[in-house]
From TrEMBL, chains A, B:
Its EC number is 4.1.2.43. This is 3-hexulose-6-phosphate synthase. It catalyses: D-ribulose 5-phosphate + formaldehyde = D-arabino-hex-3-ulose 6-phosphate. Keywords: Carbohydrate metabolism, Lyase, One-carbon metabolism. One of its GO terms (biological process) is 'de novo' pyrimidine nucleobase biosynthetic process. InterPro entries: Aldolase_TIM (IPR013785), HPS/KGPDC (IPR041710), OMPdeCOase_dom (IPR001754), RibuloseP-bd_barrel (IPR011060). Residues 7-212 form the Orotidine 5'-phosphate decarboxylase domain. Belongs to the HPS/KGPDC family. HPS subfamily. SUPFAM superfamilies: Ribulose-phoshate binding barrel (SSF51366).
């Protein structure tokens, strides 16, 4: 197995299209994956995906829909506007996830992927069903609201991430990440680090993205 | 306790604003609650909520965001555009749900409510935490994709609905409902029946809504 250097993904979680686009233009070239965030999708719709696709034809674009139902419709709606990947919430049913996967691959071929967003209580038995359904990306989250309530990354989180990786998932991690917290994950084969405000609200967002990339290369390179 | 006659809610799950508005205009006056559906919100954003609010100043408008995170931001974004209620997915954390409730009540006062969308595996222990957090509406779902895969309403579903009602929830039910399936719920104190295509795709949507209301009154009136 060749060593994987974790991707860097920027989440655009603005409540307005202009803010999201401004941030995307500032940092898009520095990152591997650009995420149309849930807050922004719910505010402005999938036009955001289309704008990002046009601005960054060669980047991976993720629509963070956290889809819970109507997987086929929502995946198609986003795929035709340029999303390579889309997220489903872990409490969605397997038929929803499968319908989403089928729809996104109808537009994107094998490059189309569904990522499962892990929130609340889920089990490894459920996770195995996602793998069985052909879904091998998961996103391990520290909820923004949980972080605001004082929770943070700990050994328990890292062990869950490791177990998912051992099961065969490519795991993204997100929630309250900054350059200094990356080293908490040293030795863990993280697939992608997702940062939002840690990059987009920095004084110099492009430089903040480069600092993330430098630290990722220092640890995993 | 005065007897409650279940509400009728229409879900606008169109992929385009025009289709959603056309359906809203056709049936809005006939129903109690108008839902800005997830599919449409993700396609066109919260402008949908604003249009519905302007069209129907006296109806309850629900933003079916199925919010999983950033509850405060998403609730505020929808409340300021006119949503009375908003949904959170059951796998959201309690801090997310609480932040959403606080934000929607900051705009709407006590009239602002959060509804928990029940998907996948949830527990009554979790449900008690929602009640403890001041959230007393839940939506029991048959997933559209699960219905397409051949599942339907059964005794197991009804017992879960009854148990939630016994706990103190006002429970909405949705998923594959038509006028003929309402009688399955006879004897159950359902708070709201939610129908989408069963109304909006009918040859005469307003008449379809009236038939739902007539059957509800026949059974619960």
């Amino acid at each position: 197995m060749t060593k994987h250097i974790p991707n860097l993904q920027v989440a655009l979680d603005h409540s307005d299209l202009k803010g999201a686009i401004k941030a995307a233009v500032a940092v898009g070239a520095e990152v591997d994956i650009i995420e149309a965030g849930t807050v922004c999708l719910l505010q402005v719709g999938s036009e955001l995906v289309e704008v990002l696709r046009n601005l960054f034809p060669d980047k991976i674009i993720v629509a963070d829909t956290k889809c819970a139902d109507a997987g086929g419709t929502i995946a198609k709606n986003n795929a035709v506007r340029g999303a390579d990947w889309m997220t489903c919430i872990c409490s969605a049913t397997i038929p929803t996830m499968s319908a989403a996967l089928k729809a996104i691959q109808e537009v994107n071929g094998d490059k189309g992927e569904i990522q499962i967003e892990l929130y609340g209580d889920w089990t490894y038995d459920q996770a195995q069903l996602w793998l069985d359904a052909g879904i091998s990306q998961a996103i391990y989250h520290q909820s923004r609201d949980a972080l605001l309530a004082g929770e943070t990354w700990g050994e328990k989180d890292l062990n869950k991430v490791k177990k998912l990786i051992d099961m065969g998932f490519r795991v993204s991690v997100t929630g309250g990440l900054d350059v200094d917290t990356l080293k908490l994950f040293e030795g863990v084969d993280v697939y992608t680090f997702i940062a939002g405000r840690g990059i987009t609200e920095a004084e110099n967002p492009a430089q903040a993205a480069r600092e993330f990339k430098d630290e990722i290369r220092r640890i995993w390179g």
